């Protein structure tokens, strides 16, 4: 999955002439087909970006990619799970304006700018983070800071085994992380316990079953753990 495909999936990007293009936190401005276009999005809060950067810093694979200046689509999926959509979820999530005279929907000029957004995101994925309020340097610095809080990586850590500062220890302690923490985000929830069989269930099943079938049923008793 490429970023341009992700943009096209959510915004239905089109093609067309775009003469001018710029990205700032919260807004893309452009001139497309002789018309002025603006795409305004909500900028996530500092708290939301803090959760994202803590989660990325806590995983060796994602941390290494971001610090290397890379932003693959799976990183965007992690961001979305934590409340930061790098690509807005459709046109309803945007305030989109164009100076043309079409007011009954998304015009060709808006779609052309969305197409350029996808192309630019393939070339430099941090175009999307800049639009969402974090440029490349700020995101990288915050991920580095979050990683430093957890302590430096050890020589035993490798990308292959996906070990990080937020290493999950053996035992039930892994279920005790704060739900909003990076470690809590990556940890599995506590599995449910075995179901309890109501008293007398075996007798009721035997009564309802035909005689030949009831004879073959094993005895019902409490589950062994």
Automatic annotation (TrEMBL):
Residues 82-118 form the SWIM-type domain. The keyword Nucleotidyltransferase does not apply. Residues 173-225 are annotated as: Disordered. Keywords: Metal-binding, Zinc, Zinc-finger. It comes from the Bacteria. The keyword Transit peptide does not apply. This is SWIM-type domain-containing protein. It comes from Nocardiopsis lambiniae.
């Amino acid at each position: 999955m490429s970023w341009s495909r992700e943009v096209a999936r959510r915004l239905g990007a089109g093609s067309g002439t775009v003469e001018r293009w710029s990205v700032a936190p919260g807004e893309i401005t452009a001139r497309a087909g002789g018309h002025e276009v603006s795409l305004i999005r909500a900028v996530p809060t500092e708290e939301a970006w803090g959760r994202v950067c803590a989660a990325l810093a806590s995983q060796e694979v994602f941390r290494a990619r971001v610090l290397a200046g890379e932003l693959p689509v799976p990183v965007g999926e992690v961001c979305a799970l934590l409340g930061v959509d790098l690509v807005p979820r459709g046109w309803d999530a945007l305030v989109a304006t164009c100076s043309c005279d079409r007011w009954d929907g998304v015009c060709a000029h808006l779609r052309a700018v969305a197409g350029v957004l996808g192309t630019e995101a393939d070339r430099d994925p941090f175009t999307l983070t800049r639009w969402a309020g974090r440029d490349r340097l700020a995101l990288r610095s915050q991920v580095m800071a979050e990683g430093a809080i957890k302590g430096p990586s050890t020589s035993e850590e490798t990308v292959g085994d996906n070990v990080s500062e937020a290493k999950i220890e053996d035992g039930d302690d892994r279920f005790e992380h704060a739900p909003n923490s990076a470690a809590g985000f990556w940890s599995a929830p506590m599995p449910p316990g075995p179901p309890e069989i109501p008293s007398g269930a075996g007798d009721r099943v035997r009564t309802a079953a035909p005689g030949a079938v009831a004879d073959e049923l094993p005895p019902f008793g409490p589950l062994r753990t």
